[in-house]
Amino acid sequence: MNTKPKTVFRPKLFDKKVALVTGGGTGIGFAIATELSLAGATVWISGRSEEKLDDAEKRHFKETGLRLLTQPCDIRNATDVDALTSEVLTKSGSIDILINNAGGQFPCSAEELSNKGFMAVVNLNLLGTFSMCREVFNKYMSTHGGSIANITLGMNNGMPLMAHSGAARAGVENMTKTLSQEWIASGVRINCVRPGIIYTESGFDNYKGLGDDVLNKIVRSIPAKRLGTAEEVASAAVFLSSDGARYITGQSLAVCGGQSFTHLAIFEQEDKVGLIPYGALPLKARL
Ligand SMILES: CCCCCCCCC/C=C/C(=O)SCCNC(=O)CCNC(=O)[C@H](O)C(C)(C)COP(=O)(O)OP(=O)(O)OC[C@H]1O[C@@H](n2cnc3c(N)ncnc32)[C@H](O)[C@@H]1OP(=O)(O)O
Ligand SMILES: NC(=O)C1=CN([C@@H]2O[C@H](COP(=O)(O)OP(=O)(O)OC[C@H]3O[C@@H](n4cnc5c(N)ncnc54)[C@H](OP(=O)(O)O)[C@@H]3O)[C@@H](O)[C@H]2O)C=CC1
């Protein structure tokens, strides 16, 4: 089944709007950048690797005939964040839409996770996202309004091997609620999109070590019986960034094919198949 949706957004929806997508060179970020660009926005993509950004720009032009603007930035680095936001404002004059999509983690059991490893993931997902929000608010949105969407990860009931990332993502979701309350008076809305398991080549490259068996188990535990696509996450992010969502702020929208993220896992023994709590599985059998 081809699940790649054609865009549901009209061509000039974001006419004269400027959007900035972190991690926009690959996977979900690239799909979001594509949707925003097709809907008429001037789109900037950033990420640490200049090469990934250049490749994405070329691919986007080939596929759509439209241009993306690029600027490398490590969102954990305050100087980079300052330079990125200043560059976009100098060259394009506004940042109406911010998509904080850059993020990730490595799977690691809590007992093996060092403080340095924990902080590397918190600095990326939580501090990096906060620092992008604050800079864009202070430099532009506080006086002009705008919309921010933070991409998190559906693990609100916890996920084995993801203590660092779960803590950071929960932090982003709660921070989003506070910022929504502080910033609505300035015309700034801020929401989260919480993807389930989404197939992206670039993202999955990081989890090859977990093996196909884990992937098959995950698919079978999803009520939709398939992984999501980057385009399906992009639709949610673009909707929340649009005027159609003008009374929505401080919310998290799950894009997860009905996955409940309660601790259930598929349990198989001989000819029996059932659902049991994740915690009851041996560690290696968990995600
Ligand atoms: C098929 C089924 C699909 C199943 C797939 C299911 C996936 C669930 C859905 C989620 C999907 C996604 O998020 S998709 C997104 C995919 N992309 C990613 O996840 C990539 C993100 N990774 C990164 O950006 C980085 O590697 C990041 C994690 C932030 C670390 O950044 P840094 O470069 O600063 O860190 P490093 O210098 O590499 O390491 C700093 C410390 O972190 C720790 N550390 C780093 N890597 C480590 C590792 N692999 N294991 C243990 N510890 C590690 C060490 O303590 C390091 O210190 P030293 O020991 O002193 O060096
Ligand atoms: N795929 C999935 O199943 C799910 C993904 N997510 C989240 O969605 C987002 C996108 O994931 P996906 O597209 O799958 O994976 P990708 O690995 O393709 O996306 C991660 C992007 O973030 C960028 N990035 C990583 N670290 C930094 C940094 N320090 N500063 C700036 N940019 C950075 C990467 O570019 P570069 O390396 O050049 O910096 C890359 O473009 C991530 O936050 C991910 O955790 C959430 C739920 C599920």
UniProtKB/TrEMBL annotation:
Q: Which GO terms describe its cellular component?
A: peroxisome
The record ties this protein, via InterPro entries, to: NAD(P)-bd_dom_sf (IPR036291), Peroxisomal_t2-enoyl-CoA_red (IPR052388), SDR_fam (IPR002347)
Q: Which UniProt keywords apply?
A: Fatty acid biosynthesis, Fatty acid metabolism, Lipid biosynthesis, Lipid metabolism, NADP, Oxidoreductase, Peroxisome, Phosphoprotein
The answer to whether keyword Oxidoreductase applies is yes
Coarse class of the protein's main subcellular location: other
Taxonomy, superkingdom: Eukaryota
Supply the name of the protein: Peroxisomal trans-2-enoyl-CoA reductase
